[in-house]
Amino acid sequence: MNIRQLLSDKFQAAMLAAGIPEECGPVVAPAKKAGFGDYQANGAMGAAKRMSTNPRELAGKILEQLDKGDMIEKVEIAGPGFLNIHLSEQWLGQQLWAAQSNKRLNVAAAQEPKTVVIDYSSPNLAKEMHVGHLRTTIIGDALARLLEFQGHKVVRQNHMGDWGTQFGMLLAHLSDKLADSDAEVALADLEVFYREAKVRFDDEEGFADRARGYVVKLQGGDEQCLKLWKQFIDISISHCEEIYSKLNVTLEQGDIYAESRYNDDLPVLVKELLDSGIAVEDQGAIVIFLEEMADKEGNPSPMIIQKKGGGYLYATTDLAAIRYRTNQLNADRILYVVDARQSLHLQQTFVASRKAGFTPESTALEHCTFGTMMGDDGKPFKTRSGGTVKLAALLNEAVERAEKLVAEKNPELDTKTCAEIARKVGIGAVKYADLSKTRTNDYIFSWESMLSFEGNTAPYLQYAYTRVRSIFRKAGIEPSELKGNIQLESPQERALAIKLSQFGEVLDQVAKDTFPHVLCTYLYELASAYMSFYEACPVLKEGVSEQQKHSRLQLCNLVASTIATGLDLLGIEVMEQM
């Protein structure tokens, strides 16, 4: 159910019936102030200006044509032509009753399901995952979960870096290491392994030439070289899978479509672009000159797809990937959850892909940019010594800190239960602290704020869920046993009902705009509305009628279900006790 869309459809029909041009559609939004209705339609003023007529009179004509049905109790004209919409209490109660007895909470599936390809996480297999991989991984996963919930076909693409010149260096070092130990021991710490290889590449005589030789062998399909490379990749992927499991991320091994998968297509792609005249040779390199991205002096933006020595670049691989996703995966929409520093590169890729005919205009190409996780000093988050923070270490610390907090709050918990709650709280806190920020912004990483049980945090929402669920244990009743209609007698009940009914439209907004923080804000506002309701509307106290109790318990049940579903779409788990 999307109330905003239902109201928009009603007011659009009324405006057309009132003789207003179709392009003058209604602008429907939730009311921002109490007493001004539940929603507000602001279409009369814009239409009146276009038609050179009085906006209040035009608003009156819209109301004459409006089919209120069972949904709308009344509409009032305010100011110069605002239309304040009051929803029917009975209709609201019926919608909520349907939602709390429905697994999908009465959220309709997409009428026109799309195939959505999401490129996210994409770690470089030469190193262990670090904090720089956190945002792409959890933002991308939240979008994948939400779009699947809406009924779209989501294809996850983990575009891992497993190819290129650096692997020659790593394979040369690995081949030497294997003389003393097996691959698993040699690659136990990828960061150490990488640093060792880099030192040898920079300082050891003859090693750089050996490394370049391995690149040639690798790209040429040398059997022994590919065997070494496969060992390196398998162990590296196992490191990534451990992180995904800890993070409660839905990426699986079958979602990996790494750089190497496109290797055979790169010469074919370059030849096609040359034959079509879209790419040209320039100073020995193969270049696409994009007039569509020309600078102020009119100079086209150059996009090199093959180096002078014959090597390929990220641009070449990304063009092959976008062609594969369009033609083989039949994508209607492709989302790239990649940091803002890649904006120029991706813009070039999108423009070149359309210019080459790889991707039609009907396929949406979207760069879901995100900012940087910053430390207290306002600089990118690092260890105290200035090194890169490994993601595994960060998550382990989150759980350890959460376990201390949980044990302090509830010392009666047994060790196993405390550890399980701490895992959900710690991991949820890290993810929610990131997802609750506008993704395009940088943000300051703070243990204290993210693990707080107050404010817009995961622990606050997880605790809110457990509080609601505890009411049913106290009442000795299961949600499935609740009977009767939902009655909205007090302002707090009505405010909570309106907020609950907006879940579907919030999901639609996030799916459209790809900003998960909108869902986080909604969940926090829902929990706050519930607290106001709970303080003002007794549920189990003496004097509450059986009918009132069942009505309010149904509201409680729907709050718990909505919080749990919303957090699950963000990849965050809830628990029955804390």
UniProtKB/TrEMBL annotation:
A GO molecular-function descriptor: arginine-tRNA ligase activity
InterPro entries: aa-tRNA-synth_I_CS, Arg-tRNA-ligase, Arg-tRNA-synth_N, Arg-tRNA-synth_N_sf, ArgRS_core, DALR_anticod-bd, Rossmann-like_a/b/a_fold, tRNAsynth_Ia_anticodon-bd
Superkingdom as given in the UniProt entry: Bacteria
Keyword annotations: Aminoacyl-tRNA synthetase, ATP-binding, Cytoplasm, Ligase, Nucleotide-binding, Protein biosynthesis
EC annotation from Swiss-Prot or TrEMBL: 6.1.1.19
Domain Arginyl tRNA synthetase N-terminal: 1-87
Motif 'HIGH' region per record, residues: 123-133
Pfam families: Arg_tRNA_synt_N, DALR_1, tRNA-synt_1d
Catalytic activity line of the entry: tRNA(Arg) + L-arginine + ATP = L-arginyl-tRNA(Arg) + AMP + diphosphate
Domain (DALR anticodon binding): residue spans on this chain: 461-578
Cellular location(s): Cytoplasm
CDD domains per UniProt: Anticodon_Ia_Arg (cd07956), ArgRS_core (cd00671)
HAMAP family associated with the record: Arg_tRNA_synth (MF_00123)
Family statement drawn from the similarity comment of this UniProt entry: Belongs to the class-I aminoacyl-tRNA synthetase family.
Subunit description: Monomer.
Protein's UniProt name: Arginine--tRNA ligase
Gene for this chain: argS
